[in-house]
Amino acid sequence: MTRLSKMSRVSRTLIYYYFGKSKLGILREGVNLFGAEFAGVTPERIAMWREGRIAESFLKSRKLLGQMPQLASFYFLNRDQENEVGEAIRAKENQFKEKLSQFFPHLSRPRIDGLFAGFWGAVFAPSLNERAVHEIADALLKSAAEK
User: For the whole model, what pTM was predicted?
Assistant: First the structure.
């Protein structure tokens, strides 16, 4: 909590006031805040999708991951946990899948899951450069457009 307080420039007392004393509760709120940006479900990121700037949206997620590389470990270590944090992570995944369903309403759930895996992989693969992310996004969108 001391480290979080220093990094956020907010007193520990204020953190506890807003989020309570439950560390899991505080982590859940962090997942909700960072997860919305990471999963691209903020109004700004959805607007990027509407404008066809999908690869740019993924590059923003990759940039966030580059600034805080521990997010990847946190995600994979906590995703399947049966607690508030694991539930919050899975909820963000589901919000992302819902976004995919809204943009591609003709796709079945298994195809949505496949798109999710492809897009998520493009975000988490550290060796991809910007051009590769654009090519992956284009290929996935072309696949999604096929009936």
Answer: 0.81
